[in-house]
Amino acid sequence: MALTAYQIQFKRRMKRAIRQRARSDQKARRYTQLLADALRLSQDAAAQMNALNQLYNVDVSTQTILVHDLLDVLQPDQLTGLLGQSTPGEEEQLFNPIPDGNSGQPLPADPLFGEVAAGTPIIPPAPATMAAAPGKDALSVAAQETETLG
Question: Out of the domains of life, which is the source (predicted)?
Answer without folding.
Answer: Bacteria
